[in-house]
Design a protein that fits this description.
heterodimer, A: mainly beta, 19-stranded mixed β-sheet, 11-stranded parallel β-sheet, 7 helices, 9% helix, 34% strand, disordered N terminus, B: alpha+beta, 5-stranded antiparallel β-sheet, 4 helices, 18 strands, globular
Chain lengths: 475, 337
């Protein structure tokens, strides 16, 4: 791989050599941590204290070379520069960190696939940017333990930050934009045991997508705006561990997700104009979010129709089986008729104490092709809203007590209007007018903080302490 | 999930189909590829394309002793075809490649003889022609999302009522052969060429080698099924996954390769290599009558592969993804995609 040289590299190299002792970068003033391959400071990391720092490019010319040379527990520290690399990580418990989030840039040049692809457990990536990759900025697959912190991912061809078939994760302090699929994605896991905290996802096809994921999966304290659709947990048998269930969405700001000029996969086109859309999502908790300005629904619970499916919806008694168990289940023989159309209905969701406004069709909506919508077991309570579909939704399906209304037909959600209205076509991710991200906050003490492999994630979240966010200034 | 009673399923499906199929958004979705939307019931056109090519002299046909081993044949659902199943179950890496061009060329079977073959749709390297060799393709411009994949993939062109139907895209899945120990899979050698399927077939081929399908459906067919607009027609070819360890090609272009059986390669072809499953997606739905492959009929499904990847990248994908049993990517082929 090649690397584009940066003037800051020279400074970084001098710093590393101690030639400018006392000097510091933009953000860090602490002492330099060990900088040579042989160094071992017995530092205050969360491991056993026996770790090294491998600097790029001071010690290793490429990130890949440093990652390949690193041993579990080590810190790969990347100095400012633009790195045209697609890095694979196959060593466990590494911490890969940029010295400056905005100036350590992995650039795929619209030719390389993934900025960093992690196939080993416990790997943390911190404080850097990945852009212009044909598939993903940062990608973990098939791992236990992952963490992405202070990451910027923009203008990538599939996802910004992507965790697939991975459990025990933390994605935090992330900016993601310009992807046709999701800015942030966690899929094919149950229980996922993962937290998404303090992310800003905008100008994507989907702000968040999670196919067949859930189970102690929290999305909190984050902003999803200016995507085609905002937060979209969804189900389908084209991947394993269906259906999506048990995602907890609390304390997020979700607005303006009707953006017409983003790249967008087909599902993003279908979901366009919705803030929080549970598309065949189940047993999710959506609480204390601020949701406004959407062409269709603020919070919508809708069926996801899957034609020519691989399988049918599993019986609910199987929903608590971990993905690790169900993934090896033989695919049952089904008739063509059974698979021709599978409807993933939204079931058992709790929509409570949200503040929702400015929705074209309805602030709160529940739709299905089932005649008996009540049988789906969703509930709505304590929300602040102007419109619902059907009308009186909180009376029809309260979270507390018995229903005080029974008319599900008046003002029923018009699925045709929701799903069939014409949408502006996708724009290629390379060509879309995705804004260059403004400078994003750096992690504290990138130069001096010890490595922190993803062995203790997710971090605890005090859900009860989260309140409905304030409306952002200027909106 | 509340089950839909069987008696209501048909009506429900019709209602939903009415919702979706009448929707402009689905039209824009289904037709999002290069070729736009094509309904197989569209107006007639002159049946004037050049089918057949060489009058049966091609070496695609005839598998000798190295053909597929006992896969299901015919219209039934294929148990082994189901092995594709939901993605995420089996280690894989995938590459999506746009349709590059169509030409009556075949650089394997009719090397150096432009215009000798039936019409093929080419994917991958944009420079594939009758004179191409693996070495000439490496590093060329490519339609593949992974720009390090400069291999050549091709399949016979599909015609509808005599007019070629430009494919939407090609998708290459690279996986261990069914039941093969993933840790034993070796990268393809540089310059390997592989052909799969029988271009002379008029009877159903084994469904685990060559089959039609709708969208991501696991249900495989010998003849094109009637697909819904949200899950358009595709054709899938599974390549042999065992190499003899010596030859990059052979006189019949086939005998240097063989299929594994019950998770093992035969002694004659002892080297397990990735099983390439190549799908061609078409913007075709509805009545499948009037469809025909350039190689004749709809049962002559076949495909060809010239291994011209950037070798280091290919080796990395095999070592990183297949040997370590990781899913290094899934193809966005959900029903509406």
């Amino acid at each position: 791989m090649t690397r584009i040289r940066s003037p800051r590299r020279v400074l970084a190299a001098l710093l590393a050599l101690g030639l400018l002792a006392g000097a510091c970068g933009d953000d860090d003033g602490g002492d330099a941590s060990p900088t040579t391959e042989a160094a071992d400071d017995g530092g205050s990391g969360e491991g056993d204290g026996d770790w090294r720092t491998l600097r790029v490019p001071t010690d290793y010319e490429t990130i890949q070379a440093a990652v390949d040379a690193a041993e579990p527990g080590d810190l790969v520290l990347i100095e400012p520069g633009v790195y045209e690399e697609a890095v694979d990580v196959t060593t466990e418990n590494l911490t890969i960190r940029g010295l400056d989030r905005n100036e350590v840039i992995l650039d795929g040049g619209f030719e390389l696939q993934n900025g960093i692809r992690v196939l080993a457990d416990g790997v943390a990536i911190e404080n850097m940017t990945a852009r212009n990759y044909t598939t993903n900025g940062f990608f973990w697959t098939g791992v236990t333990g992952y963490r992405g912190s202070y990451l910027t991912a923009y203008r990538n061809g599939d996802y910004g930050v992507y965790a697939f078939d991975a459990v025990k994760g933390q994605l935090e302090h992330i900016y993601a934009s310009g992807s046709p699929d999701a800015g942030i994605y966690i899929g094919q896991c149950y229980p996922c045991d993962a937290v998404i905290d303090d992310v800003l996802s905008e100008y994507n096809g989907l702000g968040y997508s999670g196919t067949n994921s859930g189970g102690n999966l929290l999305i909190v304290n984050s902003t999803f705006r200016y995507n085609r659709a905002g937060i979209v947990p969804n189900s389908g048998s084209y991947e394993l561990c269906y259906p999506e269930r048990e995602t907890t969405i609390v304390g997020n700001v979700v607005y303006g997700n009707s953006q017409p000029d983003t790249p967008a996969i087909s599902v993003a086109l279908l979901g366009m104009g919705n803030g929080i859309l549970l598309a065949g999502g189940n047993r999710n908790v959506v609480e204390r979010n601020l949701v406004f300005d959407h062409e269709r629904t603020g919070i919508g619970l809708v069926p996801f129709p899957e034609e020519e499916a691989n399988d049918v919806v599993p019986p609910q008694e199987d929903w608590e089986r971990p993905c690790a168990e169900t993934r090896d289940d033989p695919l049952p023989e089904r008739s063509e008729e059974e698979l021709a159309l599978v409807l993933w209905d939204p079931v058992g969701n709790v929509i409570r104490d949200n503040v929702v406004s400015g929705s074209g069709l309805a602030d709160l909506a529940l739709g299905s092709l089932q005649d008996d919508l009540a049988s789906l077991g969703n509930c709505f309570g304590g929300n602040t809203f102007e419109t619902t579909a059907p009308a009186q939704l909180e009376a029809l399906a309260p979270c507390e007590g018995d229903p005080t209304a029974t008319d599900w037909t008046t003002g029923a959600l018009d699925l045709l209007e929701l799903m069939a209205a014409e949408r502006p076509p996708s724009i290629d991710y390379e060509e879309a007018p995705t804004p260059e991200p403004p400078a994003q906050p750096n992690m504290p003490d990138a130069e001096t903080a010890p490595p922190r492999p993803a062995t203790n994630v997710p971090f605890p979240v005090d859900l009860a302490a989260i309140t409905v966010p304030e409306r952002p200034e200027g909106t | 999930m509340t089950p839909i009673p069987d008696r209501r399923r048909g009506a429900t499906a019709r209602r939903l189909a009415a919702v979706l199929v009448s929707a402009a958004v689905i039209g824009s979705v289904a037709g999002c590829g290069d070729g736009g939307s094509t309904d197989v019931t569209a107006p007639d056109a002159a049946h004037d394309h050049a089918l057949g090519g060489d009058g049966g002299t091609d070496a695609h046909a005839g598998r000798g002793g190295h053909g597929p081993v006992g896969g299901p044949v015919g219209e039934a659902v294929s148990a082994r075809g189901r092995a594709m199943g939901p993605q995420g179950r089996v280690a894989q890496f995938t590459v999506e490649c746009g349709h590059s061009h169509s030409a009556p060329d075949d650089p394997i079977v009719h090397h150096g003889k432009p215009g000798r073959a039936h019409l093929h749709d080419f994917f991958g390297s944009r420079e594939t022609d009758a004179h191409s060799t693996p070495a000439s393709l490496v590093g060329t411009d490519t339609t593949c999302q992974n720009r390090k994949d400069t291999a050549a993939y091709w399949a016979p062109a599909l015609f509808r009522d005599g007019e070629p139907v430009p494919p939407t895209k090609g998708v290459a899945y690279y996986r261990p052969g069914v039941g093969v120990d993933p840790s034993t899979v070796e990268p393809y050698p540089e310059g390997l060429v592989i052909v799969a399927g029988d271009q002379t077939a008029t009877a159903p081929q084994p469904l685990d080698v060559a089959a039609w399908h709708c969208g991501a459906s696991p249900v495989l067919h010998s003849d094109p099924p009637e697909c819904p607009r949200t899950a358009p027609l595709g054709v899938r070819v599974a390549f042999p996954d065992c190499w003899d360890g010596e030859r990059l090609d052979s006189d019949d272009h086939q005998s240097h390769m063989a299929y594994s059986a019950t998770g093992a390669c035969p002694a004659s072809h002892p080297v397990p290599v990735p099983q390439l499953v190549f799908e061609v997606h078409y913007p075709v739905w509805g009545d499948p009558s009037g469809l025909e492959l350039a190689s004749g009929g709809v049962r002559s499904v076949h495909a060809d592969f010239v291994q011209a990847w950037d070798q280091a990248t290919l080796e990395r994908e095999v070592r990183t993804c297949l040997n370590r049993e990781k899913v290094c990517g899934v193809v966005s082929n959900r029903a509406t995609g």
